[in-house]
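F.,

This is the one I mentioned.
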């Protein structure tokens, strides 16, 4: 899975980590829907850490289509309400 963290970089995330990323995404959506800002930030931070730690950064000169585009790390809770709805960042 190719994941872009907006304002940072693009990463190749192993398939075995995709399910965990989806679980965290679903938890972030649930937190936004519940109005739970602290839990949202905790899950979003976990998502970022998972991608950064388990993914391999793709060189800037390589062109890969992203499967998932994550908002910037400094996304506010109000901004998150636009992205973390329904199926979240990772549909399906």
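My design for it:
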């Amino acid at each position: 899975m190719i994941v872009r963290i907006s304002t940072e970089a693009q990463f190749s995330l192993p398939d075995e980590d995709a399910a965990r990323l989806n679980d965290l995404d679903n938890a972030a959506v649930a937190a936004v829907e519940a109005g739970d800002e602290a839990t949202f930030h905790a899950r979003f931070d976990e998502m970022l850490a998972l991608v950064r730690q388990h993914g391999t950064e793709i060189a800037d000169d390589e062109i890969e289509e992203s499967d998932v585009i994550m908002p910037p790390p400094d996304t506010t809770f109000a901004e998150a309400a636009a992205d973390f709805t329904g199926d979240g960042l990772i549909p399906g």
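The chain has a mean pLDDT of 93.

Talk soon.
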